[in-house]
Amino acid sequence: MTAETSSRRSDATRAAILDAARHRFAQDGFRKATIRAIAADAEIDPSMVMRYYGNKEGLFRAALDIDLDLPDFGAVEVNSLGEVLANRFLELWEGQPGNEILLTMLRSSVTDEALVDHIRRRVFTDQVMPMVLRIGDPADAPRRAALIASQLLGFALCRYILRLPPMVALTRAEIVRDIGPTLQRYLTSLPGE
Question: Which end of the chain is more exposed for a tag (fewer CB within 10 A), N or C?
């Protein structure tokens, strides 16, 4: 076997483990999910999971590492920012594998302080803040970014976890129409309004 073939097999094994872990953590939560169940889902020996990720906590963090691929606001017409962000939010929450990762992240963050630190750093500081810094006063960006996060996470909690019937019944167009202007305000109009 060549080094290139071995590397491809290793990448494929890692991907299979992560896919299985995301599904299992979303379904069972961190505490109930087991390395054995994840390995069985990935159709590999449990020792391979340990080899690549060290332990369940390492696998959990790797499985929840997500690139939100947020819009480049420099390429968006200023009056459409809220709408574009609302659409991206829905793409993430209603697409695969993003929805499993985000559901697990939201559910688990309530009880896992280490995960909260990961979310603050990897999601909020590294991804949301740079997006918001491109618009408006940089000094007010942390406040605006936090308000955006509260709007989107509150919506996600009600629609995807609590599954409140009126929230679940909303169409994509209704969601964008209803939360887009709020996101727009947080992005462009807050200080002093």
Answer: C
